[in-house]
Amino acid sequence: MLRRLHIPRPLTRRTIAYLVIAWAAAWFGIMAVGGGSSWHFFEQGASALADADDAVAGGLHVYAAAPVLQIGPLSFLAVLPLLPAGGWVALLGWQILGAAAGLLLLWLVRGLVPRWQRDDAWLAIAAAYFMPVWMFLAVGVAHLDDVLALLLSVGALRAARAAHGWLAGLLLGLATDAKPWAIGFAALLLLLPGRRHRLAAVATLAATVAAAWVPFFAGDPGTSNALRYTIQNAPVSALHALGIHDARTPSWDRPAQLVLALALGALAVRRGRWPAIPLLVVASRLVLEPGGNKYYIAGVVVATVIWDYAGSRHNLPWWTISACLGLFVARWVPMPDLVHGWALVALFVAACGVLFDRRRVRRSQYDLVAAGPGTVLR
Questions:
Q1: Mean pLDDT to the nearest integer, 255-282
Q2: For a Cys staple, 169 with which of 87, 181, 201, 350, CB 3.0–4.6 Å?
Q3: Residue 346 burial (CB < 10 Å; 0-12/13-18/19+)?
């Protein structure tokens, strides 16, 4: 049985939930002041997508005309219902929904372990460090695409743990339709028991991605311009720290991110470290990411909460605490740019180290179901 920090138990589960909600609401208020700095991308993309009569920049031509919109069509479709109400109303609506998504995500993480292993007070500690970073993503910059991608990917992980192949594939496909980098989580489909479940998941994933993206490529071949779009190689990036000083995204970079994420995710499954899959995928992305946006760290804290709660045997959520303070809060502390880049490299090295840690990870009823009767789990 896992030995964790002893926390007095005068608080009921409901009280703990109220405290987490109150903490989330407080950070919502803080981040809402001057928030929504990236919302104009979603207004632009959603308006263009809805303008099917524009044969140059609207409808299926949106990505060909504006490759800067590195956002999946599902995210633009999600914006459309609120857009007629006005820009600030749509923004506020999705800020509220994005904040609620953070609470839903914690609930999904809680369900990754069986009832007898759940510790709501301990998860609340992780939530204390998770919420400021999540609210920066969902409210401060209002990057709806990453909110949807992370939420749906965690939902896919939950579905895979419960052996729901088609649902895992569907959710992961929708995550990719919201933000293309989410395809890196595909290794989690290896968690499904048996070839039938895996094939169903892969087929559903492929169909879901194709349904969203093929119409754009078929409607305007210029959509391929979005695949070649590059961003500035920021001085705070891990690429800079590793000595790669190309002015913009190297041509090999995005494919390398995907291959590395899939390979390490598959290795995590093979070594019985399934809770580390999100951590390895996000770390693989950031160690080769030319961008230096602060909201990227939201993906890290989502991954660390999963590892801390479902995999790590530490008595406190040290991964989540370290990610919040060392990668997020540190971005507001004056220091050389290379320090931030090396911090991301350190995250990647530490995440890879999880694969070779000799200590046992936490086991759940789902591992027993997947392994079959009579199997001894290492």
A1: 96
A2: 201
A3: middle
Q: Does residue 6 form part of some domain?
A: no
Q: Give the range of the structural domain holding residue 145, as residue numbers without chain letter.
A: 16-371
Is the pLDDT score of 375 beyond 50? no
pLDDT digits (tens, 9 = 90+) for 213-229: 999 999 999 999 899 89
Side-chain-facing half-sphere of 30: CA atoms under 13 Å: 13
pTM of the complete model? 0.92
Digit-coded pLDDT (tens) for 165-212: 999 999 999 999 999 999 999 999 999 998 999 999 999 999 999 999
The per-residue pLDDT of the chain, averaged, comes to 91
**For residues 237 and 341, is the Cβ–Cβ distance under 8 A?**
yes
Report the greatest alpha carbon distance in the chain: 64
The answer as to whether 286 is a domain residue is yes
CB 354 within 8 A of CB 319: no
Q: How far apart are CA 186 and CA 170, in angstroms?
A: 11
CA 225 to chain centre: 25
Q: Which residue reads 């078929």 in tokens?
A: 218
Which of these, 104, 76, 79, lies nearest to 92 by C-alpha position? 79
Dihedral sign, Cα of residue 363, residue 369, residue 372, residue 374? positive
Please report whether residue 177 resides in a domain: yes
Q: Is residue 287 part of a domain?
A: yes
How many Å apart are CA 237 and CA 202, to the nearest integer? 33
Work out how many domains the chain is built from and give that number.
1
Tens of pLDDT, residues 312-359 = 888 899 999 999 999 999 999 999 999 999 999 999 999 999 998 766
